[in-house]
């Protein structure tokens, strides 16, 4: 259906329910699909690694956005849930010798159950109290990982063999790209569709006003626990992928800083927006890579650059969060919409 | 017995410093309703400024403390004016994240100027130790407890006796009512941040003397959460009781159970308190349906 100058006019309920209404939107989807397919053939191996990291971050960020952006439950425990996913998958693969896809599925389910368990405080707490409670769950999960030597190997790293499926060894980033991109696309599609279902709508009702939601018949307890479970399932998938992709699992990769990174991704991208999670992941993963590059470029004029760059990255990371929150709290997604509106209404302001 | 004595002393001194850090946290929460995740990094800044003033520039320790306090006031006022004021009226997540972003900036700044390796300890508290009931009691721990107690008493007096302290309590109670009787809420907000930074910096200076100067000091900030939740988010006496309980509990766990459990015992207490009594031991009871 074409968009007219007065907007998009639906003539049937079916057309209103479709995900994409206009030709322009379908065309954009095609462009994005082409770009995703073409990317690994045109970029250098270094940027392909970054692309894979972005794909994994997209999955985790969509999960966190379901919880924080759509259900309004602040969580600082994403790193812990990633750890649960990564360790479950790795331990099952190494010790029970299950095939990797089975391990990943089991990791997703386990993380969902554990996420639902750590979501129980949300039934009594909200806002900043909940944030502090999830901070505690993050610390408790990581402590369990560090001290449960018999299963997790304690503070030692677990190394995993390269992924092998039906005789094919996934050796290079190029091979992994297709797995990660495929799963990231799956995460986007499921995330988008979740909010067309009754369950997804009940999440948003709880976010907007929990008492009003329960007055309308939304089971608030169920919505909150399900939001934690679904969100953690995504985190479990992201964690398991990290484990098999990098081949090394250690607790140091899942600290509070990772939880903060994921929160930063969805804030920079846009809370309560699946597209925003993708924009945010691209932005927040590319930025440090660009800074590192920049550091190497100015090495000749500033010899300390390589040494100082990690500190600069940390400062820039904080600065980006602060600036976004002050100037555009609704993130890159909102900036993108504003740019589109500017072009659409030109030469008028609105 | 001597082990118990020693653990108690270490617990009390850690608890006193925790109470200082928590006091700043509660000050900010009471006056402005902001949860400050950067409190631990204020400690860090305090320790590094003190280290730089005393050991890099070679000032006398008393002058160095003065420099630390002035830096803290400047930091608090700048942070309030440029980062927190635009966030007034925003959602809880935005306010939490802005302080997390701030902590990242402060931590990165320290790393930029001082690197990641631990620094020499700036010593100004009396060294040496005394024997008591078979336990070795270092003087610096005792003096840290005394200094923390003095600062905490001074703040308690400030809140109950001085005009500014009473104005702060009025703003915490009801901003509109405070505005109508001529209290500048903006100035009170700035004052709250400045004072919070000062308490954190004093805590950081004491901590620098006791445990050395390294980036790990900021992790002290996370233990502040159990302290304030236990004592009550809006209670000044609660920070002292909470700080001492958490400090002692951590030391006893380390001494008698061990196995790293002391790292998370505060957080287990935190979750238990949140589930049973979310407003803490001394906090204002607020009935809120969730």
Summarize the entry for a quick read.
Chain A is mainly alpha-helical and 350 residues long.
Look at the structure and give the CATH class of chain A: Mainly Alpha
Please give the radius of gyration of chain B in angstroms.
Answer: 19 Å
Average pLDDT of chain A works out at: 89
Strand tally of chain B: 2
* Oligomerization: heterodimer
Cα(first) to Cα(last) distance of chain B is: 47 Å
Residue windows where pLDDT falls under 50 for at least 5 positions of chain A: none
| Number of H- or I-type helical stretches of chain A | 15
Helix-strand category of chain A: mainly alpha
**What gross morphology of chain B would you assign?**
globular
Strand residues, percent of chain B: under 5%
Strand elements of chain A, count = 4
How would you write the strand order of the largest sheet of chain A? 1-4
Task: Please indicate the count of domains of chain A.
Answer: 1
Major sheet attributes of chain B: 2 strands, antiparallel
| Terminal-residue CA separation of chain A | 24 Å
Q: What tags apply to this protein structure?
A:
heterodimer; A: 350 residues; mainly alpha; ABC transporter involved in vitamin B12 uptake, BtuC; globular; B: 290 residues; 72% helix
What's the structural blueprint in terms of helices and strands?
The complex is a heterodimer of chains A (350) and B (290).
Chain A (H helix, E strand, L loop, with lengths): L12 H5 L5 H20 L2 H26 L7 H18 L4 H19 L9 H20 L1 H4 L5 E2 L4 E2 L2 E2 L3 H22 L3 H11 L1 H6 L4 H27 L1 E2 L6 H14 L4 H24 L7 H23 L3 H15 L5
Antiparallel strand pairs in A: 1-4, 2-3
Helix pairs in contact in A: 3-8, 3-9, 3-11, 3-12, 3-13, 4-5, 4-6, 4-11, 5-11, 9-11, 12-13, 12-15, 13-14, 13-15
Chain B lengths: L1 H31 L6 H18 L4 H24 L7 H23 L14 E4 L2 E4 H23 L1 H11 L1 H6 L4 H27 L8 H12 L4 H22 L7 H12 L14
Antiparallel strand pairs in B: 1-2
């Amino acid at each position: 259906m074409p968009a007219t100058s007065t907007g998009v006019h639906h003539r049937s309920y079916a057309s209103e329910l479709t995900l994409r209404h206009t030709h322009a939107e379908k065309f954009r989807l095609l462009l994005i699909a082409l770009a995703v397919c073409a990317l690994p053939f045109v970029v250098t191996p270094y940027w392909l690694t970054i692309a894979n990291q972005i794909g994994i971050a997209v999955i985790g960020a969509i999960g966190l956005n379901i919880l924080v952006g759509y259900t309004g439950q602040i969580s600082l425990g994403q790193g812990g849930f990633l750890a649960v996913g990564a360790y479950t998958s790795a331990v099952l693969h190494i010790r029970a010798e299950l095939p990797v896809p089975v391990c990943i599925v089991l990791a997703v389910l386990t993380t969902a159950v554990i996420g639902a368990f750590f979501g129980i405080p949300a039934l009594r707490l909200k806002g900043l109290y909940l944030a502090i409670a999830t901070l505690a769950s993050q610390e408790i999960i990581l402590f369990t990982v560090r001290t449960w030597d018999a299963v997790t190997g304690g503070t030692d790293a677990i190394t995993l063999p390269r992924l092998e499926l039906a005789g094919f060894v996934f050796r290079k980033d190029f091979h992994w790209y297709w797995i990660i991109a495929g799963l990231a696309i799956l995460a986007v599609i499921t995330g988008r569709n979740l909010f067309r279902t009754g369950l997804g709508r009940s999440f948003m009702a709880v976010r907007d006003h929990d008492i009003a939601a329960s007055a309308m018949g939304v089971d608030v307890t169920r919505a909150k626990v399900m939001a934690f479970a679904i969100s953690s399932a995504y985190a479990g998938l992201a964690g398991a992928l990290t484990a098999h992709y990098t081949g090394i699992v250690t607790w140091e990769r899942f600290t509070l800083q990772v939880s903060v990174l994921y929160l930063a991704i969805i804030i920079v991208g846009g809370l309560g927006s699946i597209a925003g999670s993708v924009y945010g992941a691209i932005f927040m993963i590319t930025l440090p890579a660009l800074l590192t590059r920049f550091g190497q470029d100015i090495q000749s004029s500033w010899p300390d650059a390589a040494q100082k760059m990690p500190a600069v990255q940390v400062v820039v990371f904080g600065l980006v969060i602060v600036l976004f929150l002050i100037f555009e709290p609704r993130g890159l997604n909102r900036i993108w919409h504003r740019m589109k509106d500017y072009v659409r209404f030109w030469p008028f302001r609105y | 017995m001597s082990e118990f004595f020693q653990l108690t002393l270490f617990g009390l001194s850690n608890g006193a410093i925790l109470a200082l850090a928590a006091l700043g946290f509660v000050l900010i929460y009471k006056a402005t309703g902001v949860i400050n995740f950067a409190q631990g990094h204020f400690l860090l800044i305090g320790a590094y400024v003190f280290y730089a003033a005393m050991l890099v520039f070679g000032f006398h320790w008393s002058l160095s403390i003065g420099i630390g306090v002035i830096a803290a006031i400047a930091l608090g006022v700048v942070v309030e004016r440029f980062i927190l004021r635009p966030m007034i009226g925003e959602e809880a997540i935005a306010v939490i994240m802005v302080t997390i972003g701030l902590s990242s900036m402060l931590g990165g700044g320290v790393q930029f100027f001082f690197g990641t390796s631990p620094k020499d300890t700036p010593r100004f508290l009396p060294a040496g130790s005394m024997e008591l009931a078979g336990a070795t009691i270092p003087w610096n721990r005792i003096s840290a407890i005394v200094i923390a107690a003095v600062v905490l008493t001074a703040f308690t007096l400030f809140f109950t006796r001085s005009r500014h302290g009473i104005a702060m309590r009025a703003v915490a109670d009801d901003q509109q009512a405070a505005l109508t009787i001529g209290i500048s809420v903006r100035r009170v907000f700035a004052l709250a941040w400045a004072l919070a930074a000062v308490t954190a910096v004093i805590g950081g200076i004491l901590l620098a003397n006791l445990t050395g100067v390294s980036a790990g000091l900021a992790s002290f900030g996370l233990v502040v959460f159990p302290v304030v939740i236990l004592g009550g988010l809006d209670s000044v006496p609660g920070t002292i009781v909470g700080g001492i309980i958490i400090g002692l509990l951590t030391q006893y766990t380390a001494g008698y159970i061990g196995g790293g459990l002391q790292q998370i015992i505060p957080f287990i207490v935190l979750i238990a308190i949140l589930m049973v009594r979310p407003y803490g031991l001394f906090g204002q009871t607020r009935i809120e349906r969730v």
